[in-house]
Structure formats: structure tokens, C-alpha cells
Amino acid sequence: MPGGPARRGRYHHGDLAASLVDAGLAHLAEDGVAGFSVSRIARRVGVSTAAPYRHFADRDRFLAAVVTRAADALAEGIARALVAAGTDPGERLAAAAGAYAEVVRADRVGFDVIFAPDLRALHDEELARAGRHVMDLLVAPALELAGPDGALPLVEQVVVLAHGYATLDAGGFLSADRVTEAPTAERARRAAAALIAGALPG
After folding, report:
1. How does DSSP classify residue 87?
2. Of 110, 138, 161, 180, which residue is 20 to 30 A from 129 by alpha carbon distance?
3. Domain range 57-199, its CATH number among 1.10.10.10, 3.40.50.920, 1.10.357.10, 1.10.260.40
4. Distance CA 25, CA 192 (A)
5. Tens digit of pLDDT for each residue in 128-138?
6. Is the pTM higher than 0.70?
């Protein structure tokens, strides 16, 4: 009978893996890492609770694949912001902070998840690659601003600031009693620009 229980047969091997990761991203955005449930994601896709384990060895490997996709999306958002900001390294890094806040607010996957000790312990090559790519995008303008000794501390400050905006906005704090009508990404960008200006000599 069309549209009946034969749903689980409609996926090719690669299609199901991709669909599971897509559903995992949506689930992660709603429930966070603590609520990441393989069985709930499987039901969301319409397959058996055993189906994900034909593609991912265990929950952590599945989570790593989902976080890798989210990290790639974060890198894409930051890369677009860097291009749009032009050539000034301070403006580029501030724009990257705004992009970080915007993407992480929506996906709930920031550095706290991408570089989580439990996931790093898996030594997942794709996740490591995605994490490095995000860091490289942030470090490049910071190197121009602060040199090799100051770049990483500056990136740390900018990421902590941007992550704070993303987290507080996702929790409703910033929207409940807005100090300004500017979007969260723009507020994070402005705050990062002020931080960068104050952190640099002269």
C-alpha cells in the first residue's frame, strides 16, 4: 500500500546516513548535547532504532558526525562574514564574532561542543579537520592584529564573547528585555570590535 510501512526501504545507504545527520542537527538544536538521543532521531527519520548503528558505530560516533556537519556550517558562516567585512583585520575578526554568535545561537554547536573532551577522545579525523578549519579562519585576522604571541589569546577572548551572546540569546535572556533592537549577531560584532580595539596597543 503506497505510503505505508515500507518507508524504511526508501533510503539508499548514503542517503540514510545523510538524513540521519540532518535530523541529528535539528535534534541537537532543539535539545542540546545532553538530550542527544539516537532512538529519537531514528524515529524522527522514520527508521528503526537499530538503523543508525548500520552507519555509525555508537552514539558518540553519530554525535561526532552531526557535530562535524555543524562545525562545517559554522566555518561557512564565518568565511562569508570574513569576505563581506573586507580587508581590515579588526573588522574581519569582529565580523567573524558576529557570525559565530548567529550560527551557534541557531545550531547550539559552538567550541564547547566541537572541542568537547569526550569527542576529542574519539580522534575522529573529520571532526578534527572541521574544528581546525574554524580555528584557522579566526586565527588568520588575529595574527595580523596581534602577531604570533597574541593571536590565540585574542581569539579566545573574541570566541568567549561571541559564545556568550549566542548562549544567552538561545536561552531567551537577550530577547526578554532587549537593551537594543539590533540582532544578536550585530551586537556580538560591535562588542567584539570594542574588545579588539581595547586589546591592541595604540
Report:
1. S
2. 161
3. 1.10.357.10
4. 27
5. 999 999 999 99
6. yes
